[in-house]
Amino acid sequence: MVNFGKIKLISRSFTTLSSAPLRICVVGSGPAGFYTAEKILKAHEGVEVDIIDRLPTPFGLVRSGVAPDHPETKIVTNQFSRVAQNDRCSFFGNVYLGSSISLPELREMYNAVVLAYGSESDRSLGIPGEELAGVHAAREFVWWYNGHPDCRNLSPDLKNTDTAVILGQGNVALDIARILLRPTEELAKTDIASHALAALEESSIRKVYLVGRRGPVQAACTAKELREVLGIKNLAVHIQQADLVTKPADEIEMKNNRIRRRVYELLSKAVPPGHTPVLGQRELHFVFFRKPDKFLESDDRSGHLGGVRLEKTVLKGDDELVNQVAVGTGVYEDISCGLALKSIGYKSVAIDDLPFDNYKGIVPNVGGRVVTDSLQDHMQIETGLYVCGWLKRGPTGIIATNLYCAEETLACISDDINKGLLTSNSPKPGREGLLQLLDSRNTKVVSLDAWKKIDTEEIRLGHIKNKPREKLTTWEDLLKVASE
Ligand SMILES: Cc1cc2nc3c(=O)[nH]c(=O)nc-3n(C[C@H](O)[C@H](O)[C@H](O)COP(=O)(O)OP(=O)(O)OC[C@H]3O[C@@H](n4cnc5c(N)ncnc54)[C@H](O)[C@@H]3O)c2cc1C
Ligand SMILES: NC(=O)c1ccc[n+]([C@@H]2O[C@H](COP(=O)([O-])OP(=O)(O)OC[C@H]3O[C@@H](n4cnc5c(N)ncnc54)[C@H](OP(=O)(O)O)[C@@H]3O)[C@@H](O)[C@H]2O)c1
């Protein structure tokens, strides 16, 4: 059922079109969307902001990316909830830009549109065997354990193997390693999806390999996250001592980058000299200077993963510029495993009628203003169309990075308002028009009040199990509770 509760109030102010507010739609309710909305509302008193999201739930990767054992990171959702409760702000979930409504339609409804729909696809390795059962993108695996409804049925097989290989050494790779290796009694107290907890409780995985194509100095993770994975109870860490030997270029790299030095130092001390693993311990192996070459099919189970072939690499690069890249040596080795997780970065998805830079996987923009072509000579600004977050910069940066990103996008919007490029002189239908169109298409819009029903139910269910929340993980359950 479409919830028009809040709309009725607002539609009264539509009677005098001359005093119509400027109407802005933000697409995506992750950090980029919420920070942008918050900043617009603060900076411009006469502006109304509607946030749409394809999910019935808000908060983007704070809900479906941030690891369940990082509850402190999710506190930011309190700030986002306050933004959504602002009288001049509305949240409309279950509204999919590109299928519920097209971009040209949305632009017709609003004076400006800010795209903040993140990165919901994956970089591809482009190597043989990626289609084998047992090979998953990190994004899917993370969505699975975080209860994203699109990955409810992923069912990664954790029972037929004792080894998982994670390709990539960024913070997402570390999150996944931690979830696979952490004692499940500890995970049981988090908001991890119950289907994932059950699978992890039965998991036979004892060894996790974290594979980097470059060395320990170039590992893409940060120190706090590395310390956490190294501190898992009853875990034996393995690193080849030879991989820890640095070259002059590595030393320059560490001199210029404090995070790299901290990460390297932690890795160097992770395995004390003479340390022998205790029998029965779970194992975490850091593998450096190896790039994925192919996924190997199992001999026993047709169509299933049996291992990963890695090519040894050396680093080449200018010692001064310190841009060392991994180059294959033609020497290969295999790791037997039944589960492989590609954690080599996310990628944004193009939608119809939107300029898109396929190479960079972002919407071409100048400081947040969408341009039709990023080449200087042909650049044309799309008036009233802006971008923020991972869709603007690419899939890197922590939650707070999107705050600075939103400030930059807001500066463009404010500038365009001041220049008279965005004006309510030609009033737009805004949320009233949007909801009418969605209603005519039988889209079940999830309002803020409807999301609160989901929230309350999840917290209630969690309380029973001594968890902060028990997420609803199917589209049916989410929409059912929202419409009750
Ligand atoms: C696995 C993982 C763990 C992370 N952990 C941390 C952490 O612990 N701490 C930290 O600081 N940072 C963490 N980050 C980084 C942080 O999550 C990102 O910087 C941030 O979420 C990016 O914000 P965004 O708004 O651009 O995208 P997102 O958070 O992805 O939000 C995009 C939103 O757009 C919606 N959407 C997508 N397509 C459409 C569409 N077509 N129509 C309508 N809506 C759409 C999505 O449903 C989503 O709600 C993590 C990232 C990942 C991947
Ligand atoms: N707790 C937290 O704060 C937290 C948690 C999760 C995520 N995040 C943030 O979210 C962002 C995304 O994280 P991420 O881990 O997805 O990305 P990332 O930090 O960019 O790491 C990607 C990893 O994949 C490797 N890689 C890329 N292409 C490859 C290829 N073709 N073959 C082999 N390896 C390849 C990279 O190696 P190279 O370096 O050699 O390219 C790197 O190790 C990051 O900014 C991260 O800090 C933060």
From TrEMBL:
<keyword id="KW-0521">NADP</keyword>
<feature type="binding site">
    <location>
        <position position="390"/>
    </location>
    <ligand>
        <name>FAD</name>
    </ligand>
</feature>
<feature type="domain" description="FAD/NAD(P)-binding">
    <location>
        <begin position="23"/>
        <end position="185"/>
    </location>
</feature>
<keyword id="KW-0285">Flavoprotein</keyword>
<feature type="binding site">
    <location>
        <begin position="169"/>
        <end position="172"/>
    </location>
    <ligand>
        <name>NADP(+)</name>
    </ligand>
</feature>
<dbReference type="GO" id="GO:0016491">
    <property type="term" value="F:oxidoreductase activity"/>
</dbReference>
<dbReference type="InterPro" id="IPR021163">
    <property type="entry name" value="Ferredox_Rdtase_adrenod"/>
</dbReference>
<feature type="binding site">
    <location>
        <begin position="397"/>
        <end position="399"/>
    </location>
    <ligand>
        <name>FAD</name>
    </ligand>
</feature>
<feature type="binding site">
    <location>
        <position position="32"/>
    </location>
    <ligand>
        <name>FAD</name>
    </ligand>
</feature>
<protein>
    <recommendedName>
        <fullName>NADPH:adrenodoxin oxidoreductase, mitochondrial</fullName>
        <ecNumber>1.18.1.6</ecNumber>
    </recommendedName>
</protein>
<feature type="binding site">
    <location>
        <position position="61"/>
    </location>
    <ligand>
        <name>FAD</name>
    </ligand>
</feature>
<keyword id="KW-0274">FAD</keyword>
<dbReference type="InterPro" id="IPR023753">
    <property type="entry name" value="FAD/NAD-binding_dom"/>
</dbReference>
<feature type="binding site">
    <location>
        <position position="97"/>
    </location>
    <ligand>
        <name>FAD</name>
    </ligand>
</feature>
<dbReference type="InterPro" id="IPR036188">
    <property type="entry name" value="FAD/NAD-bd_sf"/>
</dbReference>
<feature type="binding site">
    <location>
        <begin position="213"/>
        <end position="214"/>
    </location>
    <ligand>
        <name>NADP(+)</name>
    </ligand>
</feature>
<dbReference type="Pfam" id="PF07992">
    <property type="entry name" value="Pyr_redox_2"/>
</dbReference>
<keyword id="KW-0560">Oxidoreductase</keyword>
<keyword id="KW-0496">Mitochondrion</keyword>
<feature type="binding site">
    <location>
        <position position="225"/>
    </location>
    <ligand>
        <name>NADP(+)</name>
    </ligand>
</feature>
<feature type="binding site">
    <location>
        <position position="397"/>
    </location>
    <ligand>
        <name>NADP(+)</name>
    </ligand>
</feature>
<dbReference type="InterPro" id="IPR055275">
    <property type="entry name" value="Ferredox_Rdtase"/>
</dbReference>
<comment type="similarity">
    <text>Belongs to the ferredoxin--NADP reductase type 1 family.</text>
</comment>
<dbReference type="GO" id="GO:0005739">
    <property type="term" value="C:mitochondrion"/>
</dbReference>
